[in-house]
Structures are given as C-alpha cells and as structure tokens.
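anyone seen this seq b4? input:
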Amino acid sequence: MFALLITVIVIAILFDLVNGFHDAANSIATVVSTKVLTPFQAVVWAGLFNVVAIFIFDLSVGNTIAKTVNTSAIDLWVILAGLLAATAWNLFTWALGLPSSSSHTLIGGFAGAAMAYAANDGGFGALGFGVLKTEEVLKPLLFIFLAPVIGGLIAFIIALVTIQRNFIKKMFFAALLSFITVFASWFYKDVFEIKIQMIWIIGIVLGLFLIVYIIYQLVYGKRQSALRESSMYKKLQLLSSAAFSIGHGGADSQKVIGIICAALLVYSNMEREGKVDVALPDSFKVAEIFQIKYEEDGNVKKFKPQRYGEINGRPFMLCNDTKLFDISKGEKIKVDDSDMAIVDGKEVDVKEVLVPFEIYSKTKRVEKDGKMKDETSIYDLSNDSLVFKGGKINKNWIYASVFKDFLDEKGKLKESYKIESKFTRETTPYWVVLACYLAIGIGTLMGGWKIVKTMGTKITKVTPLEGVCAETAGALTLFTVSQFGIPVSTTHTITGSIIGVGATKRLSAVRWGVTINLLWAWILTIPVSAILAAAFYHIILLVK
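predicted toks r here
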C-alpha cells in the first residue's frame, strides 16, 4: 500500500507538470500576441514567477480540494482514479488546443471516483453522496460561471479607466479602484484569513501602475504619441504578466498540494485502522488544526485552539494568539504581541513552552432519526484522545473547559457554530509544497503553443494596453479569490478578462463562435472528468 501512495504522489506531481504546460498559455498568451516577449522569453518569465508564488500564498485552496470528499471514507485507489481521469482529460483538451480548466478536471475526477467507490461499497444507501463534501464541490461549480464574469468585469472597468484621455479623471478612478480593492481585502482579512503580505502585494501592484502613469504624464505631457504610449504599455505588460503568473502558480499548485495531502491523510487513517503494513514516515505526515467559526453581532469570528501543554505542572492552552487558558484555575491570561504571558508572577514565552495542538478527524455515516447522516469525530493527534464527536465535546478531555462558551447545556456546539479543520504550511511536509511549485514552473517552461494561439488571437485581437488590463484583472481576481479558499480556474479567469477588454471596443470584436466552443468545453469538464474517473476506478477494481 505504501508503494501505491508513492505512485499517487508521483502521478499528482506529473499532473502538476501537465497543468503547467497546459495552462502556460494563461500566463503568456497576451504578452506573446502583443509581441512584448518571444514565446521562449515568455515561458521563462512565466515559469519563474509561477515558482515565486511559493513565498506568497497559503494553502486555502489546497484545503478546499482536499475536503472535496471525506478522506476518512475513501481509499488511495479513489485518488489514483481521479488523477488518471484528470490527466487524461487535460492531455485530450491540450491536443485539441482547448483551454479547459485543470481545476475543475481535478475536482470532477476526484468526485467521480469517490462516487464510484460509494456505489461499489455497499451501494448508496450505505454511504451515498455523504462521501462528497457538498459545500466544497458547489464552490468551484459556482465559480465556473463567476470567475470569467468577475475577471471580465474587472478588465472591462480597468480598460475603460485606462482609455480615458483626461489624465486627472484617469488618476482619480484608478486611485479609487485601488483604494477599494486594498480596503476590502484589509477589512475582510480576519474573516477569510487573508495574509498581510497578500494585501501588500495587491497594493504594490496597483501602486506601481499608478506611479508609471504619473511618471509618463510628467515626462511626456503633451508630447504623448501613440508609439510612446504603446511602448509604455508593453513595459507594463511585463509587470502584469508576472503578476498573473504569480496568481496562476499560487492558485494551481495548491490544488495538487491538496490532492497529495488528501492521499497522506487517507494513508494515515488506514494506518490507524491497521490496514497497512508500512508505517508512514514522519517526513510524510500531515497534521490538521481546527477552529470554531461563529457569528457575533453580525461579524464572523473564529476561535482557534493553537498550543497546549503544562506550565509549572498545570495544563494550559493558547487560543487566538492572545488568550492563555489556565485549566486548573479556570482563568484567562493575556498574551502580548511578543508571545509573553505572566504565569504565577513570572514571564513565560508561551510558544516556547507549549506545543502545537494538532488533530485528525474521522467521518462515518450513521443513522439518526431514520436518516443517514455524517458524523465527524475529532481526535487529539498526540495521544488519540477524543475531543469532539458529532459536534459534542468529550467532557473527560482535560481541555474541554476551554470551549464552554461555545457549547449548550448538553455539551454540544451551539446552533450555527461550526467546526472547521484544515492543514497549514506549518503542518504540511515542506517537500510537498516545494515539489508542486517546481513542477508547475517546469511545466510552464514546456509551454503550450496550441492554446496560446486560441487565447491570444482567436478570441479577440489584443493590443498591449488590453493585454495589461486583462492580465491585471486576472491577477487581482486570482489573488483575492484564492485567499477565500475558492479553487477558481485560471483559464476561465484570463479568458473572461480578455473578453472583457474586447467588449470595450464593441461586442462584435469578441469572436463569440470561439467563445461558445470554450464555454462548452468548460461546462463538460466536470461531468466528463467524473465519468472518466468512475470508469478508471472500475477498471482498477478489475485489475488490482
């Protein structure tokens, strides 16, 4: 079974490689079609910034992909079948030159194989659609339509602002849009756990565009010419294509990281159940953390138990970085910004003396009130202690009192309170993250010229100015939505952006015949991938 795990990981990384050259066109189509860079220069440029994304993005999208199915309710053969189907569909659409979505291919394959597993494992009455996490599947389904619309709308607005000839009006609208984007990201940073550096990057990208415009106006003033303006936009395209490449690398690498982490979690569950002969090496282990999400006074809040252990012989738990719970005394101690707290009259570095609180979860189908329902149990990873079962606290767990404010009189989570579990950069093997980012970078270097021609010339003719608008809109969409944990398609996003800038000239400038063909490819991606995955799963059952 360990050999199967290694096989799944290798195929996942190969899928990431295929994703790189399949989606290379997303990053380089406009910069090549406007002749800013040669195809070779463009793929090197895009490949580099695909890898740079490793320093910027977290694993929000990876968690959504991994949670598409209940990892405690499937086996490694399911993941293998899903990957084979996704890779096959990607290669097929690449051969036809169609820019289909690798994201939705992966989700469709994963879901289809899981459903085939459910049907085979005692029929749908035993497991059924409970093998799927409906909310996580619906997110990408919804954004099949929303991603190109959002990208197109942002591109349309940016293009309208950019072609405005009055410099003062242009600067006013550009500054206003930049402020709204950065402010919205900052306002929702806690709700969606947006990294501060992501907000800085969005602000810097937008700020650089404003600075270039201002310098251009000051230097040339009334001596502007179409040639000089075109030259400026070509230089700006280097920045916008780099920004989109970072967005592409961050969004798409996470999807494969999610699949590999799902495989490692499945193997860990099988090991706990005694179904494997080889123990998972420490360097392969993925841990999860959990939090309680709730609403208070109209605001979404999260309670995060982070570290626990003993101080002066007594149990303590650190939550939300600022609260240290003294379990024995039932007291809360404030933790300052440098992680120091006063315990028994002495300063203590809580992150130095306490260890991370990590969990694993198991989900099974149980019958309640005549209906089949999912019941998730959460366990303390360090000692296998039960923490929650079906949303009810284990009152014998030593740290149970920490959660009393979130429980009803029966010890169950209050209505509308929700437990979320996820893996993070800190709890994921670093080699998994590094391998996926390198694979997509190398894949991008391999190119994908067939799709470049479709994206860069067949949808609409793209000028340097329109290329800047499309790539900037695509990058902003990817940066923002990826932080929300939504696995959008980079293909859909940039295509919508290209259509958006084309529509500023006139609607007839968009070649709707080509666009409709692309839409059909997108709509068919998830169901076809799901059917392929189900077929692969049944073939695997026959030959294994």
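Confidence is low (pLDDT under 50) at residues 123-128, 453-460. The longest strand covers residues 359-368. kinda curious what u guys think
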